[in-house]
Amino acid sequence: MGYGRFAAMIATSTIVMFGLMYLNTWAVEHVFFSQTRLWMALLMGATMAFIMMLFMLGMYPNRRANGAILAASLLVFGGSLWLVRSQATVGQVAWMKAMIPHHSIAVLTSARATLQDQRVRHLADQIIATQLREIAEMRALVAEIERSPSPASAPGLPPRMP
């Protein structure tokens, strides 16, 4: 098995992992591109490349190439972890597009959970109603902002929390 095949395997798996992260959304219309999910897929792909290379070192005799793959995996891991944790690339529309599938997951788990205690069922129903309302609000804001972008900060809004 050559290095090209190894790279194709990692790339394919990373793309598949990115798609799999959307399977637990409540509705297809709640699926939006999410930078955070992309960074997480890269983080997982880098981790997989590192671990697989360690397990398959005997299959790949070129020590320099192996070292480069391990080093690149660590760099991609570190960079994608920083991007996930810092959210440095995520603006207001990207944030809402990432939050919609996140809220949709809460709807799915709350709707499908087998809850016996009526207090817990009531809480789950409140979560469903709140998340669906917030999804609708974010979708409307995304559409509005994409039609006519507004200034970065609007008067009367509370300051951003650290």
**Low-confidence parts lasting 5 or more residues at pLDDT below 50?**
153-157
> What can be said about the biggest beta sheet?
none
The succession of helices and strands, N to C, reads: HHHHH
End-to-end span in angstroms? Answer: 48 Å
- Alpha-beta content class: mainly alpha
Strand content: under 5%
Would you count the extended β strands for me?
0
Helix content: over 70%
Question: What is the number of helical segments per DSSP (H or I, 4+ residues)?
Answer: 5
Nearest-integer average pLDDT: 92
Dominant shape: elongated
Radius of gyration, taken over Cα atoms and rounded to an integer in Å: 21 Å
Search tags:
about 70% helix; mainly alpha; about 160 residues
What does this structure look like?
The protein is 70% helix and 0% strand. The chain is mainly alpha-helical and 162 residues long. Helix 2 runs antiparallel to helix 3. The protein is elongated, with a radius of gyration of 21 Å. The N and C termini lie far apart (48 Å).
